[in-house]
Write a structure and sequence with these properties.
- This protein has twelve helices and 21 strands.
- By secondary structure, it is an alpha/beta fold.
- It folds into two domains: 192 residues, FAD/NAD(P)-binding domain (3-Layer(bba) Sandwich), CATH 3.50.50.60; 121 residues, 2-Layer Sandwich (D-Amino Acid Oxidase, Chain A, domain 2), CATH 3.30.9.
- The strands form four sheets. The protein has an eight-stranded mixed beta sheet. A six-stranded mixed beta sheet has the order 9-3-2-13-20-19, covered by helices on one side.
- Helix 1 packs parallel to helix 8 and helix 8 runs antiparallel to helix 10.
- The protein binds 8-demethyl-8-dimethylamino-flavin-adenine-dinucleotide (RFL) and P-hydroxybenzoic acid (PHB).
Amino acid sequence: MAADFETQVGIVGAGPAGLVLAHLLRLEGIDAVVLEQRSRAYVESRVRAGVLEQGSTDLLIETGVGARLQAEGAVHHGVNLQFEGERHRIDFAELTGRHITVYGQQEVVKDLIAAELADGGTILFEVADALPTALTGDRPVIRFRHQGRDRELACAVVAGCDGFHGVCRSVIPPGVLTEYEREYPFGWLGILATVAPSTEELIYAYHPRGFALHSLRSPELSRLYVQVDPHDDIENWPDERIWSELQLRLAAPGWTLQEGPIIEKGITAMRSYVCEPMQYGNLFLAGDAAHIVPPTGAKGMNLAIADVAVLARALADWFHRSDRRGLETYSSRCLERVWRVQDFSTTMTELLHVLPGHDPFARKLQRAKQRYVATSGAMRQSIAENYVGLPLS
Ligand code: RFL
Ligand code: PHB
């Protein structure tokens, strides 16, 4: 096949996984090209995650893309879990000696795109019909359309960083992957509001009307979520209804929730998904392309970063030392963290949501777990350890 240009690693997707991978490869002196279907403006304004584990921030800072994160991100030493108006603080500093940083995913994306382009990297935006081919040989080719032209990128390795609905996982022949999946009978309605946060640290609340979360982005910008039916229409949620639901679910004695103009809102369904292995020939899947967690543990972006940290090191061993062991163990090493995080995200989700169809016995068990958080240092220790995240290996 006569490809019209080539690189060492063809990366599909310019989300956190693809962009951190391109950045780490550049530091290793490995050439990569990123192909992204959306525009730069679109990926830079897509409001999603907000919580970075210490391992993720350390990696961004140590590799030279953490200046704005350090200046504008907010370091948090704890979070609050609230059950029917009773608030319990999980003290990360005391329990783990570690912290998290609240910094919007789209800010991470902006910083990485700016660094990549400033360093002479290639990111092609608004690419259509990307199709990785010849993946079991030593010269895969990614076909795509860009600026009205059909193009072909030859590479040694394809990194599928194209999210849950991307193309890369779907080109793997049937029978290769084992897929594990759970859908939830609820979703999150998320808002961004121009009002000073009413809390210094995140509040995750269980309420008989459903889950609610108060998060933030800056001293002037609040991010909040409420549990809703995943098939509900955002049109059914005028701003007053959202605020009134948040007021009820987050209410706690002696505390007030300040309201303000809502500048962004949307409903996201929740699911858990893992495919095994995260590899097929010379195609390596990373981030949401290989696994999805419900957002209650704040883990998706962190898992994406953890995957590509492993992949970048494995690719450096392969390109610089012809040592393929890192690539061969990539999937199993990532999956160990993925399943730990799946367990934590499920625990947090089941602890905090009203589970439709729950029988009275199950609700009693949930209540017992919530009491255990309130009364047991061991339970709080376990939540803290998982929330701040395992060190990057
Ligand atoms: P992304 O971010 O989805 O990026 C994939 C990119 O690939 C592009 N793409 C393609 N490009 C070319 N050709 C194709 N055929 C393509 N198909 C797709 C897409 O346009 C996109 O740019 O995946 P990545 O990089 O793996 O990153 C994963 C994270 O985005 C995700 O896990 C997190 O946002 C999840 N998440 C959270 N994670 C956290 O760590 N902490 C949090 O606090 C947190 N909160 C959240 C979240 C996700 C949420 N939603 C909206 C699902 C809160 C919410 C509400
Ligand atoms: C967010 O700030 O968007 C956020 C925080 C914590 C979560 C999920 C999302 O668990």
